[in-house]
Structure formats: C-alpha cells, structure tokens
Amino acid sequence: MTTTKAGPRPGAPARGPGGRTGPPSPGTRLRFRPRSRVTGAAVLLLAPFFVLFVLVMVVPIGYAVWLSLFSEQQSGLGFGGTETVFSGLGNYTAALGDPAFREGFVVLLGYCALYIPLMIGGALALALLLDSALARARRFFQLALFLPHAVPGIIAALIWVYLYTPQLSPVVEAMEAGGIGFDFFSPSGALPSVVNIALWEWLGYNMVIFYAALQAVDRSVLEAATVDGAGAWRTAFSIKVPLIRESVVMVALFTVIGSLQLFTEPLILNKGTGSAVTSTWTPNMYAYTAAFERNDYGLAAAASVLLALTAALLSFVVTKLSGGRGRKKTERNEATA
User: What is the DSSP annotation of 75-119?
Assistant: First the structure.
C-alpha cells in the first residue's frame, strides 16, 4: 500500500523553517523595499504639484505682501520722478481708513446674506427633486441646469445687462406690461441684479455636486426608511441631507470664498449702464481701480491681502462650525445607540 504526502490544506497557515507555523522567528530576515526608494518615488510624484503650487500661489502671495509694504512718492514739487519708499503698514491703514473700501465689505455682507442661502438651498432642492422617484428625464434636466455654467462669466453678465436694460429687454417690457416696475440698475436693484446673475451661473454646477453625492447614498437605507413609514419629505431632510453633509459643507465653503471674490458681474454692470455700481463697489473692484486707474500698486496689494485674510478667516469659521456640529451629532447618535 503506497501513501502520498499530503500538501498543505487550503487556508492553512504557512509553515516556516522546521515546519513551524505562525510569525517568523526573531532571527528570520524579512525583505523590505528600501525606504530611500519609496521616498524617492513619493518626491518624484509630488514634485510637479509643489512646483506649481509655489509658482502660482506662494510666489504671487509673497510678492503681494512685499509690494504692500512700499509706496511711490514724487520728489520735490512733482517735477521729478517717483521713488519707491518703505511705508510699512501705511497702505493697510490707508485702505482701512478709506470709506469706499469699508463700504465694499458692507456690500459683500449683503451679497452673502442673499446669495449663499439662495445658492445652497436652491441647488440642494433641485438635486433632491432630480433624485426623487417621481423625477423624469433626469439627464435632460441635468444638462439644462448645468449649461449656464458653461457660459463664461463675462458673457453671462453681458447677456443679463441686455435683459436688464429698458427699451431693449423683453423681460422688462413684459414686467411693465404686467404693471411691475423695477429698475435693475438703481441703488436698491443693483445688488439683487448681481445676485441673480451669479445664481444663474453657479446654481446648476452646485446642483450637480449635490446630485452626485445623493446618487452615492446606499439605497438600502432609503428603502428601510420607506418600510418604516417615512414619507418623501422626511426621507429627504432627515436621511438624504444628513448623509451628504460633507458635500454641503464643501459647497458652502467654496461659495463663501467665491462670494468674497465678486468682481466680474459688477464690473460689467459698472461699464456704460448708468447703474449704481461704482468702481469701488466691492473690495476686489477697489483693488482693481487702485492698481490700474490710480497706479497705486501698494494700496491695491494691501487691499488684496486684507481681502485674502478675510477669506481665510471665514473659511476657518465655516470649517470649524461644520466640524463641531458633526462631532456633536456623532456623539449624540452614539449616546442614543
């Protein structure tokens, strides 16, 4: 009778030297990839990003900070040339002391109060509608709502300036025929006009982000909610929205930063429309006017740095508040469980 030597059973632990199983003995040598090779590969892959980051972010910011510390002065009675002198924080105090610069932040505050809730709420509502079971022709509406974002900001502003102009716009003509009189270029109408243009441009873009996040939600969770008796409204606001909270926070953060950079839309409304939008209507326009109309590059750089610091502070606040709420909600859920 012959016997054959059985091989290792499937799933059995590997045997080491001497037939031992389990972890290798202390004296056993293990082969690892050299640390220097791993580090070199990481440096090679990350180098292009860091080079571009330094060139397009760090260097311009550093140059703006350096430029904001100097100002140009004319020597003598103005007949001599200009000389660059170190002014320290003089440009910063000049910008903060200028009422036009401070009023620009007041305009931004009103813009954010109107634009951010309408943007996030509108994009979220459209995404929830497209994600609902009653929605039809989802592809068509996604494309139709996203198309305005494909139009460049300057072109979009020009289109809406035409639609705002009396004697030219069919919209204004229809409003007047219905007994509705509204001047889109008046002091009270300029801000809603700019908010409307920005909404038209970015609503579909943020809607696509929310819709993509909703598509990633586990459908078994929604089915369980339906079995438990949750209606469409309860499912949308108690289950779907909390599950895409990270996407909502990201869109809110980008919307805040984009709101502080408001420039293109009011600049177009300022050119030849007779609107209440002035050349210093926003901080960005103030910096643009100081640099390219008054040739005061130090003041323009100081205004830009102050605006960047404001954006960084608000971004930190939004991130901190959203992170704190998320941790409290997680602790509450764990305590309930």
Answer: -TTTTS-EEEEE-TTHHHHHHHH-HHHHHHHHHHHHHHHHHHHHH
**Contact 217/223 with Cβ under 8 angstroms?**
no
**CA–CA separation, 273 and 271 (whole Å):** 6
User: pTM for the full model?
Assistant: 0.79
Cα–Cα dist 114/33, whole Å: 56
191-193-197 Cα angle (round to 5): 120
Give the C-alpha separation, 199 to 156, whole Å: 11
Mean pLDDT (10-residue bins), the chain, 337 residues: 50 51 54 70 89 92 93 68 83 94 94 95 93 78 89 91 89 88 88 94 94 90 85 86 92 92 90 82 94 91 93 88 63 50
Pairwise CA distance, residues 100 & 187, whole Å: 15
Cα(236)–Cα(243) distance, rounded to whole angstroms? 10
Element (H, E) at 309: helix 297-336
